[in-house]
TrEMBL record:
Heterodimer of an alpha and a beta chain. Belongs to the bacterial histone-like protein family. SMART domains: BHL (SM00411). This is Integration host factor subunit alpha. Pfam families: Bac_DNA_binding. This protein is one of the two subunits of integration host factor, a specific DNA-binding protein that functions in genetic recombination as well as in transcriptional and translational control. InterPro entries: Hist_DNA-bd, Histone-like_DNA-bd_CS, IHF-like_DNA-bd_dom_sf, IHF_alpha. NCBIfam families: PRK00285.1 (NF001401). Keywords: DNA recombination, DNA-binding, Transcription, Transcription regulation, Translation regulation. PROSITE patterns: HISTONE_LIKE. It comes from the Bacteria. The gene is ihfA.
């Protein structure tokens, strides 16, 4: 199992789409920048057949330092969450089921 990186995504664009390497990197960066800008402004990013990235607001809550046991406040913050599509979820479950039965 390997990690998908920007470089590997750009290489896939280069080989499958036929753009030059520099155009492939520029296209990938433009897509990622557009997604990041939408998430920064609080919008969701939906990629059909893949999933939805969304910004969730977490409120203030209490936490505990596990070392000392002292209670500390955790400040409100935004987090990005991902909800996979049914298609992606199905593909992931099919792959994991096959690998478990081998």
């Amino acid at each position: 199992m390997s990690t998908v990186t920007r470089a590997s995504l750009a290489e896939q664009i280069y080989t499958q789409v036929g753009l030059s390497r520099s155009e492939s990197v520029a296209l990938l960066e433009a897509v990622l920048e557009t997604m990041a800008a939408a998430l920064e402004s609080g919008e969701s990013v939906k990629i059909s057949g893949f999933g939805t990235f969304m910004v969730r607001r977490k409120g203030r809550r209490s936490g505990r330092n596990p070392k000392t046991g002292v209670e500390i406040p955790i400040l409100p913050r935004s987090v990005i969450s991902f909800r996979p599509s049914q298609i992606l979820r199905g593909r992931a479950n099919d792959d994991s089921t096959e690998s478990l039965s081998e």
